[in-house]
Write a structure and sequence with these properties.
It is built from nine helices and four strands, in the order αααααααββαββα. The protein is an alpha+beta fold and about 230 residues long. The chain has a four-stranded mixed beta sheet.
């Protein structure tokens, strides 16, 4: 399956997060490590500082070796315990991120509903799945279909203001767009604007993978590796 290119299906950190219904952003905030580290650990990288595995293990009430070695069996008795938050969840930053998260979820729900309406009367309407939005390492937000049943990988970007506002794309999102373009897979970026606006109804523009890859992109942050 396509998603196996981007995710390890037996990764313990990813298993615990999805079982608890958490996003990578939520885990990063509460465990005290960066979202980039969460992504790396969930992709199976073993070359991070040991303390990062320990922070994540402490968050899930697990031994650090269990996270590092993907010992799923070790985690099973801990599934009923609440995660051990290392930070206050209701800080000013947390509230701002929560508002942004709510806006993004509203946009994703809007697009998912539009996809179901598009597929109404076909057997594919029930298969529209927006759960991929909870996992940033997936690189897309919604799995949908054409009316003939071909898969579509959909990324959603949402803004309260107009269509001319810039938006951000993660490395994973660009990776999926490139993969789909190179392999002739259906890919769409839905730009939803005027979401939750008091003056306008939400609208959207749809771009294909080739158009997304042709956009002008400016770096907003860098990953720095210390030698």
């Amino acid at each position: 399956m396509y998603y196996e290119v981007f995710a390890d299906p037996i990764n313990l950190a990813r298993y615990m997060r999805l079982h608890l219904g958490l996003t990578q952003q939520q885990v990063a905030q509460q465990a005290g490590i960066s979202i980039q580290d969460i992504v790396r650990i969930e992709r199976g990288q073993k070359n991070l500082e040991k303390r990062k595995y320990r922070f994540l293990a402490d968050y899930y009430h697990l031994p650090a070796d269990a996270i590092f070695n993907d010992e799923v069996g070790t985690a099973l008795p801990m599934l009923t315990q609440r995660p051990n938050s290392a930070r206050k969840r209701f800080s000013r930053l947390s509230r701002r991120l929560q508002r942004q998260d709510e806006l993004e979820r509203a946009g994703e729900a809007y697009v998912a509903e539009q996809e179901r309406l598009k597929l109404q009367g076909t057997p594919y309407a029930i298969g529209v799945n927006e759960a991929y939005a909870d996992d940033p390492s997936s690189g897309y937000d919604i799995f949908s279909f054409t009316q003939s049943g071909e898969p579509i990988f959909i990324t959603v970007k949402t803004t309260r203001s107009g269509v001319s506002d810039p938006f951000t794309l993660s490395g994973s999102e660009l990776e999926v767009a490139s993969y789909c373009c190179a392999n002739s897979l259906n890919y769409e970026l839905h730009l939803v604007y005027h979401m939750n606006s008091k003056r306008y109804a939400p609208s959207q523009i749809v771009y294909n993978a080739g158009q997304v890859l042709s956009f002008i992109k400016e770096p907003t942050e860098f990953i720095v590796w210390r030698r």
